[in-house]
């Protein structure tokens, strides 16, 4: 991928080759189970950098 920056006259002032890296798309996936009164989650996601869980109680877990 090439990035070109120009001015108001559409003149290219700088060109950067391989400046922007396009990564693979992350795949969200998880498994869950119940043991007694507890629910547990297993993160099976791929290529994710950050993640969080929203359980609807106003707090986020990550």
Radius of gyration over all CA atoms, rounded: 21 Å
The total of beta strands comes to 6
Summarize the biggest pleated sheet: 2 strands, antiparallel
Backbone structural class:
mainly beta
The unreliable regions are none
- The share of residues in extended strands comes to 35-45%
H/E element sequence: EEEEEE
Description:
The structure is a single chain. This protein has 62 residues and is an all-beta fold. The protein has a domain at 24-62. The protein is built from no helices and 6 strands. A two-stranded antiparallel sheet has the order 1-2. It starts with a strand and ends with a strand.
Summarize the structure.
The protein is built from no helices and 6 strands. The chain has 62 residues and is mainly beta.
Feature tags:
mainly beta, two-stranded antiparallel sheet, elongated
Write the layout of secondary structure elements.
Elements: E1 2-6, E2 12-17, E3 30-35, E4 38-43, E5 53-54, E6 60-61
Antiparallel strand pairs: 1-2, 3-4, 5-6
């Amino acid at each position: 991928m090439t990035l070109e920056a120009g001015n108001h006259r559409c003149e290219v002032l700088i060109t950067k080759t391989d400046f922007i890296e396009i990564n693979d798309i992350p795949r969200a996936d998880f498994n869950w189970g119940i043991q007694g009164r507890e629910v547990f989650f297993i993160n099976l996601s791929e290529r994710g950098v950050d993640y969080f869980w929203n359980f609807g109680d106003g707090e986020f877990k990550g």
